[in-house]
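Case study 2.
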Amino acid sequence: MRLITGPLKKNPIPLGLSLNNIQNGVVLSSVKSFAIFFESKPLREPKTRRTSAIMDTDDEPLSEQKQRKPIISGEQLDIEAYAGLYTGRTKISRLIFIADKCDIVSMKLEALRMAYDEIKKGENTQLFREVVQKINGRLGSDYGSDVSWTSAVVRKADQRKEKLESELNAYRTNLIKESIRMGYNDFGDFYYAQGALGDAFKNYVRTRDYCTTATHIIHMCLNAILVSIEMGQFAHVTSYVSKAEQNKADLDPITIAKLQCAAGLAHLEAKRYKLAARKFLETAPELGNNYSEVIAAQDVATYGGLCALASFDRSELKAKVIDNINFRNFLELVPEVRELIHDFYSSHYASCLDRLGNLKANLLLDIHLHDHVETLYTEIRNKALIQYTDPFVSVDLNMMANAFKTTVAGIQKELEALITDNQIQARIDSHNKILYARHADQRKATFQRVLQTGVEFDRDVRAMLLRANLMKHDYNFKASRKI
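Prediction:
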């Protein structure tokens, strides 16, 4: 890909250019002048597809801009409302994650305080000691190391464990499969409550040998998926989702939605964003708050929306996201994500990127999305740049920089990277700051296809002649007779 880095010999803007040739900051050169400039190489007319949609909000009248919904403000995350969306261990894990990643001291201490209170409702003494160490006395004496509570929990856990062991031994002696399955399941619940995720996973999986119905297998898979997500073992998540889906006749809508979410998280962790988007988009609204021990309905909208923006083209975005009635129910819970999706599809890129910027601080505090925010944002921005330049023969970089709220040097650097990666077929006039589209030579491409077809035909004919000669001389028959 060749970049023009010096001044051009001819004026890049034809002499016959009028005000009618400039629309939305994009220079639309006449085909005749454009062909003279590029050594009389034939070029097609600028595409008219979606040209009107490329208009940016900066060129709209002020009255129309005021009528649009205002950009969301970068408000501080409401930790109490956020934590209220979850239950169980994931609630504690998310609060601790916020405390570790947040730079605001008040938010950090609030998250630790809520985690402390939530842990004391359970039996996880190891996690309790970790939180107390993170608090380090900053919340007063009420949030210190509670030795009496810890001792009582440990003593109660030892008694519970002895009881479970005696019951399981009795079940094994009597060879009652259902009782043995329930015994291992109780042991899994016990270890999960204690925070021993590895032991919990082993006991949940052991119930597989004693499952007698499809419902039992599905229950075992859901338990294994829950623990695997907590441990970050997403390969196990994918495996047990597949096992559960083999019993489709026994799956109710809520369970199907849970499996879709679990598969979506596994694909997200593996950075397979298109597959993750599809799983979240297929999630039924019956999910509601029935999977709050793993994910909230708001997360489905956020994860699915961002992954779709980063990986879907315009037609997929329209059909699978905007026109998706089921997913629309999730988007209603997160208006910010819904609005930025509509802005992106309507080519209001400045507004879309502003909304993304306002959401970024809170998204970085999400336990599953944190490691993917930068990648997703880069992919979304690159797609916006590609869609902006696609309909036109030439684009003024000054106007494009204004549309994307950046500098000319910055937009030029981004375009250079996309041209180098072959995502945009264009050349940059760095002197006059104009991007010129490089369209494929249709005549040359046609000849190349014809020549390739001739080569393939010649190869096939030679192969058929060789086969015919082999059959004529009974080569296959003689070879088999010798053996």
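Residues 442-472 form the longest helix (31 residues).
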